[in-house]
Each structure stands twice: as structure tokens, then as C-alpha cells.
Amino acid sequence: MTGWWVRTSRRFACLVLAGMTGVVGHAQTRVSPGDETALRRLLPDAHHFALVEDDTRHFRAYAAPEAGRPLRVVGLAFFTTDLTPRIYAYKGRITTLVALDTGGRVLGVDVVHHYEPFGYFSIDLPGFPRQFAGKSVLEPFDVGRDIDAVSRATITVEAATRAIRQGARRLAREFAAAQALP
Amino acid sequence: MTHTFRLHRGFSHGLLAIFFWLWTSVGVVSAMTQPDEGESPPPLSLDDLAALDALLEEDAQGTAPILDESAMLDLAALGVVLVFAVFSFLRKDDRLKVISLVLSVVYLGFVKASLVSVVDVFGAIRWSLPALRDGQAYYLLILFTLVSTVVWGRLYCGRICAFGALTQLMDRVVPARFRIEPPRWLDRRLVYAKYVVLVAAVLYFLVTDDTLVYRYIEPFWMFTLNGNVVMWTLLAILLLATVFVRNLYCRYLCSVGAGLGLLSNLTMFRIKRWNECQTCKLCEKVCEWGAIDGPNISVSECVRCDDCERLYADEDKCPHWLIQKRVATSPTGR
């Protein structure tokens, strides 16, 4: 007769293994190390991340798995270049990683990459991404109103803000819709 | 699940695994329907979702007008600067030109920091340009620059560019005794340096995708007042050198000027010259851009500053008129 501990751990291993194959089957791909590092910065408490490759390509951050309980999403994140690829700033797209909580609030923003000539005194400064943290997707995200305008870098700041706003709203909506599914 | 266990131990594990696999395959979505732990924020309410849908609609349709108040103001202000520049150009009036230069330095320079840059060449190469929504005034400036260059030549360099305007105004203030004219043979070689700068910058951009190189080959960032020690040092050296060699940057180093110089070969309305210009050297000496070489005006160097055209029109200075007068008043007649 196998002991309770052996049985439980075997069952748990079974669950995890099955769960992992299921996760792979569900168009969730592994997160690249580079993305993982970027995600960690914004969602430090997450246990692990998964990439969801659908119309709204995004990442999901999960809490540590608990036996017998479904995985719990603790955060969402997306690259603006995935969700709003047509927003061009002064020189092309601005790659920004945006993290949301499951209630549609911005947890953090990280400007990852851009070609903006005037970025170094606008969106590159830590003050720019910091303004978004804690904002709900229902807030205006409007340069000059709740986001600071940077004179002489208008195009850059406008486009970066617009991409964050539209992407965050879209993802929050998609996630809410997915949650409402039976 | 408990009755699965009752069937068979080993089998039940397999079933459980299949069940779990199916569950995750259907979607981690179902995980969300599970009651959340205490830490999770409340999900968006139905009212929130309705509001969010309205906002998304707004985002998608761009209900916000493309031309809002501030954009209109920007366009109007830029329009005034451009119209005044063209007006001063068509009137060939020196005082109007000074006002036009001051307008450019103050508004396009220190207020807007809106100058055509080599970065715009990079953007055009990659065809990655700003959204019209964010840059109406920017597009007006680019359009004006291209059109005016094809119509009249490098008018942008001579009047609109804030840095060019700044060095021209500097030239009016700095005493002439400091001035060093580069010898003709050197000048004629140095003008090609700007094309080298342009080609090198474009090649560098194509290889590295780094636009920030503009900071070290252009002084235009100075109007943003945001630079590092190296940038400010280079700028100080450049301005100091400009005290001695006037319009140094525009004539020899500006990659935008090089690009517009190439475009200016298409110029439709060029400066007309008298027959007497074949031999007269008056304008050649006056031209602060070194654009006149004997009977020819090098269209790619000329920024349409009007200095020579004012001379052509001056009946007391230009040999064309002086000869005519002498012929008219000469006792022998003709």
C-alpha cells in the first residue's frame, strides 16, 4: 500500500505534467528569456509567464500553482507594437511593454525600444512611464490632461501615450470578455 | 472526480490527466471563472465594460478630431512664419528678411524646435513617418521645404531653418574684421563635405538602425535645450568657428542642406543674370554662401538670400544699369 504522501505527490506530478501539455496545446508559447526579463521588471511577484498568441498577442502572469486549483492569473502584459502596430511616432513604432492587473488597472509601463530622436528627454526619462502606473483603462490617458506634455517632443509623447491607451483598453476588454465565458 | 477514483487507481490518474489536459486546452479562460483569492482586484463591472466599449469605439474611429485647437494654432503659427518668409523673399527686402530670420529662430527654433533633420531622411528611407494626427505642422513644414526647393531652390536653408537663420543673424552682429574667407580652391572642395556627411550618416543608419547619430552631426537639437556635455562642447566649437567662417555649418557640413542641394537641381525659377555677369565679379564677392563662380550660380549652394538679386536691381551699383546709363547719356549716342 503506497503512502498518502507518495500518492499525493504522484497525483500532483501527473496534474502538472498534464497541465503543461495542455498549456502548450492552448496556443500558449514559451516566453523568450528577453521578454521574461522585461516582464519580471513590471510583474516581479509572478510565478511564471505564458505567451498567448491570438488576435491580442499578450502575456499572462500566473501565481504559483496550487494543487487541485486552477492557475490564477495575476497580471497581463503586452507590447504596444503587437496591439497597436499602426501607431507611428516621429520615427516609427515605440516598443513599450505595458502590464495590467486583471481589473483593468495599469501596473507598470516600460519603454523598451524606439528610434525617437527626441526620446532621450521625453519618453526615456523615468517620469514618463511612471505616470501610467495605477491608472485605470477608463481614465483619459490624454497628453496635456492626465499625461504630461513635453514641449518640443510632442509627436513622440502623443504617439507613445496613444499606443499605451489603446492597447491597454483592448487587452482589458478582451480579458474581461474571456472571463465572462462560461 | 471521486467516483473516477473508485473505478481504478491507475486508470483514474490517466483519466484525471486527460480531463486536466482537456480543461487547459479549452482555455485557461476557465481558470478565470474560479473564485479569486483575496488579493485579486475586482474585475471590471458591467458599467465599466460599457464605458470601456465606448472608449474603444472612440479609439478605433478616432472621434477626436484630427485638427484640434492646439493643432490649428500650431498650423496657423507655422503658416505665418512660412508666408512671411516667402513674402520677404518675393519682396527682396533686407529688413523683411531680418524679421523673417528672427521669426524662424524664435518660433521654429526655441519655441517649437521644429527643424528638418537628417533623421527625417532616415524616416523617409524606412518609410516610417509620424501619424498625421500628431504632426500636422511637421508635415506642413516638410511639404513646404520640398515644394519651395523645387520651385525656388534652398529657400528653406536661407530663411526657415532656425539654425541657418541663427548663424545668419550672428553674421550681422559679429564684426566683419573677424571674418576669414576660405580660399576659393578650398571652398570648392569643402562644399562636398556635406554630401559625404549625408552619405555616411545614411550608411551608418542602414547598418545600425541608430537614429541618435544626429546628435553629433547636427546642431539642431540645441533648440530643445537638451544635450549632454559632448553635444554642448561640439556646439560651442561650431559656433565659435562660425564667428570666423560665416555660415560654416550650412555651407560645408549640413546633411539636410546636401539633400536639398541635390533636390535643388530641379529648381524651376532660378536667379536670372545679366549679360554683364559674364565678366563682373561684384556679386561673387558679396555672396556670403560662396555660391557664385564667375558667370555661374551653383544652384545647390545658393540659398536664395537675395543679396545678389538686390544688387542686380540696384541701378547705382550693378554694371548692367551703369553701362545702360552711360550709353544713354554718352554724347555719341548709339
Descriptive labels:
heterodimer; A: 182 residues; alpha+beta; six-stranded antiparallel β-sheet; 5 helices; B: 334 residues; mainly alpha; 2 domains; two-stranded antiparallel sheet; elongated; disordered N terminus
Description:
The complex is a heterodimer of chains A (182) and B (334). Chain A is α+β, with helices and mostly antiparallel strands and 182 residues long. Chain A is 37% helix and 18% strand. Chain A has one domain (31-182). Chain A contains five helices and six strands, in the order H-E-H-E-E-E-H-E-E-H-H. A six-stranded antiparallel beta sheet of chain A has the order 1-2-3-4-5-6, with helices on both faces. Chain A is elongated. Residues 22-26 of chain A have low confidence and may be disordered. In chain B, helix 5 (69-91) runs antiparallel to helix 6, helix 5 (69-91) runs parallel beside helix 8 and helix 12 packs across helix 16. In chain B, strand 1 (292-293) and strand 2 (296-297) form a beta hairpin. Chain B contains 19 helices and two strands. Chain B folds into two domains: 69-269, no CATH class; 273-334. In chain B, strands 1-2 form a two-stranded antiparallel ribbon. Chain B is mainly α. At the A-B interface, helix 1 and helix 5 of A face helix 2, helix 3, helix 4 and helix 7 of B.
